[in-house]
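Posted in: Structural Biology > Protein-Ligand Complexes

Title: Requesting predicted complex, 6-O-phosphono-beta-D-glucopyranose in pocket

I'd be grateful if someone could produce the 3D structure tokens for the following input. Sequence and ligand are given below.
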Amino acid sequence: MGHAVAIWDHKAAIELTKDWNGIDQVVLRNPQGASARVSLHGGQVTSWRNDRGEELLFTSSKAIFKPPKAMRGGIPICFPQFGNCVSLEQHGFARNKVWTIDENPPPLHHNDSHGKSFVDLLLKPSEEDLKFWPHSFEFCLRVSLGADGKLTLISRIRNINSKPFSFSFAYHTYLSVSDISEVRIEGLETLDYLDNLFKRERFTEQGDAITFESEVDRVYLSSPNVIAVLDHERKRTYVIRKEGLPDTVVWNPWEKKSRAMLDFGDEEYKQMLCVDGSAIEKPITLKPGEEWTGRLELTVVPSSFCSEGLIIPS
Ligand SMILES: O=P(O)(O)OC[C@H]1O[C@@H](O)[C@H](O)[C@@H](O)[C@@H]1O
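-- Reply #1 --
Done. Output follows.
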């Protein structure tokens, strides 16, 4: 792997460095000074900052990589399962593998390339992985940072096996919020969800926008492709756009569970909220040679735009 620094545009660049655990990471920057960090451990985005240097993703203060335990924070990639339904480690092995950089990625679409920095990572199963999950696949993850600061993750998973396989998937996104009690989610009201706190029993969301006053661990089913997470105190809204990802996990461990998890600092659960794009209820099945694409796009806008309904299409 070369230490290449590729200049895509005026100041937009990618750089290879080490993260705080000494693991290789790629830093993407845009001309305005926004940045994103992607660790080769797990292909996990561990940081996303706006042009004022403000961190937009949550990372637990005690977050260290202790494989096979993944780091809690950023955007862990859950593949080939979300949760622990089949006899694999919780949320699958992808988040605990060392990915490689694809040195010859397909070029960005011409209209899409202005000021954008991106990196393509690859994951292929090792002999050891095949013992636990006997399916050959090629997983290409493109992480890009737009000139406008937008963070996009595109996963392409190809079956290079001679028989079909199925998987579930999640971009388990940890958003950084001011205080969980100040946050609400729009876009999930009236949907059905599986409640992990009640053995995945199915319920229907009754209320208006979703707010938080205790532990939440749910998979909202067939959710819209645009979801907004409004943070009143910070007066900013995360807009999550997704494609190929029908479900949305909403998770906050709250105080007791967060303490038991050990790698959250005191009260730190208040500053995080996982809201993701995922494919969980109905596993994706790929026949030999088939490819699946799942795309997640994150932007942050001032909250007032959202409450006026200007940016969230129905
Ligand atoms: O604890 P992990 O494996 O990092 O996963 C984070 C959490 O992800 C949630 O979505 C699960 O439902 C929780 O039970 C889990 O703790």
